[in-house]
């Protein structure tokens, strides 16, 4: 039997909650700034890392949006995505469904197509290089208004056959899912899947809204659902996938420390929880680091880790046949290790 670290690395898994802009490592921030002639308010990589000390979601978002300013060209988005896929593949990720925030870029004058084409080029190269498949999820920034989200959906039209779904991210408190009910209805009518961040900082009511008013196929974070037993029962009964991000929860002070993270409680309650990295360059680790952190912090056994990996495929937007193929490989991996 391999040791736990190696077992986690080799475990075939999907990543379902990853903001591609949040995979921008400080070294890459400097490289893109230099090649695009953009000035950044940091003198060194160490200075950037030292700034990643957040007390809440908004603290992080302010720095995250500032960092994204170095992304200007199709090549930047391609290189950014490819660097993430290289790291993900090394962590045993065989499929990734990645978020991008078009408004962060279109509001700076970077056209939607530059972002989308760059990311799609990175995805194509990752499949060639690693056999890693990926899907794109277009996230609306919830601190902006409904009209802006509708404009973004309009800009996405030429790329819709290459976009799997829509999501909702950014500042949660004060921006409930209800604000985007009509945009999500329009996206559903276009055949797009729907996900939303809910219950990261926001109350259980926001999770109810995501289910009832946005019709989400998957819930991003969802941690605060645990405060509402009836909601937990509903999520468990419906087999709703939760994309949980342990290191993010600690870094944004939503969970006091990894030792008290509720991931194992979620599993015991029958929730289809998955483990993901959210914004790995900002939160101290990629998906493998997240698995390792909870394995150690919550003393998860191999069966729990396999359940989490299994859930990542079950919760993905892959076809039933594709999911079955991944699960067969997962079973073979576990058997070979026994
Ligand atoms: O963790 C997050 N929460 C909400 N919005 C985000 N945008 C990037 N990361 C996040
Ligand atoms: Zn997120």
TrEMBL record:
The record marks 221 as: Important for catalytic activity. CDD domains: ADA. Substrate binds at residue 279. One of its GO terms (cellular component) is cytosol. The active site is at 200 (proton donor). Its EC number is 3.5.4.2. Keywords: Hydrolase, Metal-binding, Nucleotide metabolism, Zinc. It catalyses: adenine + H2O + H(+) = hypoxanthine + NH4(+). Gene3D superfamilies: Metal-dependent hydrolases (3.20.20.140). Binds 1 zinc ion per subunit. Pfam families: A_deaminase. Belongs to the metallo-dependent hydrolases superfamily. Adenosine and AMP deaminases family. Adenine deaminase type 2 subfamily. This is Adenine deaminase. It comes from Sphingomonas naasensis.
């Amino acid at each position: 039997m391999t040791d736990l670290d190696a077992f986690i690395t080799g475990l075939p898994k999907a990543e379902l909650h990853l903001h591609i802009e949040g995979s921008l490592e400080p070294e890459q921030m400097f490289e893109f700034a230099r090649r695009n002639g953009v000035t950044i308010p940091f003198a060194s990589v160490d200075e950037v890392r030292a700034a990643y000390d957040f007390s809440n979601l908004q603290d992080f978002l302010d720095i995250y949006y500032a960092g994204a300013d170095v992304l200007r060209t199709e090549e930047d988005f391609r290189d950014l995505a490819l660097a993430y896929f290289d790291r993900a593949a090394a962590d045993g990720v065989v499929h990734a469904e990645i978020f991008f925030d078009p408004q962060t870029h279109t509001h700076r004058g970077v056209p939607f197509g530059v972002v989308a084409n760059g990311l799609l080029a990175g995805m194509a190269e990752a499949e060639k290089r690693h056999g890693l498949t990926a899907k794109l999820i277009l996230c609306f920034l919830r601190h902006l208004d409904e009209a802006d989200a509708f404009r973004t959906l309009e800009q996405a039209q030429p790329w819709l056959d290459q976009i799997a779904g829509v999501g909702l991210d950014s500042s949660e408190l004060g921006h409930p899912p209800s604000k985007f009910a009509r945009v999500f209805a329009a996206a559903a009518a276009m055949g797009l899947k729907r996900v939303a961040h809910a219950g990261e900082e926001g109350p259980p009511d926001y999770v109810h809204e995501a289910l009832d008013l946005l019709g989400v196929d998957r819930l991003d974070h969802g941690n605060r659902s645990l405060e509402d037993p009836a909601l937990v029962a509903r999520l468990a009964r419906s087999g709703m996938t939760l994309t949980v991000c342990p290191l993010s929860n600690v870094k944004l002070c939503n969970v006091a420390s990894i030792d008290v993270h509720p991931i194992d409680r979620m599993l015991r309650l029958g929730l289809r929880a998955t483990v993901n990295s959210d914004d790995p360059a900002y939160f101290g680790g990629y998906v493998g680091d997240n698995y390792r952190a909870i394995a150690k912090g919550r003393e998860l056994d191999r069966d729990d880790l396999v359940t989490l990996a299994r859930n990542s495929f079950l919760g993905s937007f892959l076809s039933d046949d594709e999911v079955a193929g991944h699960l067969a490989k997962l079973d073979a991996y576990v058997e070979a290790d026994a």
